[in-house]
Amino acid sequence: MMSNEELKKMVDELRSYSKETTWIEFKRNDATDNQRLGRYISGLSNAARLSNEPFGYLVFGVEDDTWDVVGTTYNYLKRKEKGSDLDFYIRKGLTPSIYFEVFPCDYNGDKLIIFKIPACSSVPTEFENVAYIRIDSHLTELKKFPEHLKRILNSDRDWSAEIVEKATINDLDADAIAKAKELYKEKNKNKSFYKDIDGWSDATFLDRVKVTAQGKITNTALILLGKYESAHFLSPHIAQITWKLDTEERAYEHFGMPLFLEVNNILAKIRNVQYKFFPDNQLISVEVVKYDNEVILEALNNCIAHQDYFRNSRIVVTEKINKLIFESAGGFFEGNAEDYFTGEKTPKKYRNTWLKDAMVNLNMIDSMGYGIFKMLKSQKERYFPLPDYSKSTSDEVILEIYGHSLDENYSKLLIENKDDLHLTEVVLLDKVQKKQEITDPAAKLLRNKGLIEGRKPNYHISSSVASVTGKEKEYLQAKGIEDEYCRKIMKDYMLKFNGGERSDFENLLKDKLPDVLNEKQKKDKVKNLLQAMKRNDEIYLDGKTWRLKP
Description:
This protein is an alpha+beta fold. Helices cover 36% and strands 18% of the residues. Strands 14-13-17-18-19 form a five-stranded mixed beta sheet, covered by helices on one side. A four-stranded mixed beta sheet has the order 1-2-7-6. The relative contact order is 0.07. Residues 20-141 form the Schlafen AlbA-2 domain. This is Divergent AAA domain. It holds the Pfam family HATPase_c_4.
């Protein structure tokens, strides 16, 4: 039995989640009838399974719009239905039977009633022979959403471990196997069996690293090491990554099996250059690489390992002028991205356990939850925004990795105070620069250290901390990995239209410059670029029209 303090803490944790969370429902007073209560329990049980949460929650006494605690007069245990106790009626109507708990809670004088509802297993929870689900904030019948039903039915199934009966070792790529053995040997050079590895047959090696199972080809074996032409064995499921260039130039390419080798070919596609920072307290610039190759590989391999292959969707990597976007099907399987920021959380379950084990053995990922932490650490050490998962949903994981600065104050702060900032402070400052919501205690922590200014919710990183001399315009002129690309776009425009006025280039670049710049700063950026091109003798001004020099 939970104590009242534990219940209050649980309510506070539930109220801290996004209002779009499907496995939490707040109700003011007793705003539901007895039958609808049973439907809610069914819907929340099923929604919890789809969100990979162990429980769903229904709380009476919290305003469903504001999530403010208002109290309730609802008394579940005293209610009757069809001549019997409501509790008996509800439990009898649920199939399969689930043991939900009901807790009364005194929340600082306000009465709450809390339902803690177990997630369904591989069979949906029904009420009176109908399964329900919450979509956004609406309760509806599960049968209207066959994809959700399919996911529940497959929720206890590790597809990556399943045997592909007609496939043989001849359907695997010999070069991929050889490279896998080479990396495995390197990883295990201190192990007692190291000297035996060269003598292993391919079949022995593949069983040893849990790619195959007793010599039989698994879906994992095909995903990682399968020949390109063996993709039909997985159909309709897909083992493919699409790289898409979305800048002033546009291109795309599909990469199929074996993904163990193809991730390096995708890495080679991504344009990587040096980026310069100009901190105020240093005489020379700080130069870092735009993207860390290890971060890119970590992101790609995480997509492969945790993709929901039942969704029959490819992984998409979009390269923009200032960031990389990784999209993979299926939400986080346990918890959310921020749970792994500190490197202290270890996942207890996985969507594709067999695939995960094979990738760990082949040194593609780790199984301790350190991957996100390593990406975060790399971005921090290069003074860039942290990995951003904020656009992820229950249906897909979206990771954005920035290859430029969003807010000069944030970057300068990391450069000038890199040894004095705690990781928690860096994470919170990153939220501020991205205009994401932070809690009141977090804001107080940052404000007390002089790291942020402004009023809720419009906080911003303190310019006095990061910029002693206030050279904002000079920095904006000097900074910018985009400059090279912007100049090319402007030159192409002049070539095509025999010149252009400044307003033409302002419109041309408006959506391509960082969102952190306001309208005036974007116009100043265009003005500075034109002047720099003129000084370099690349263009000249003919009246109001800028033209290319012959």
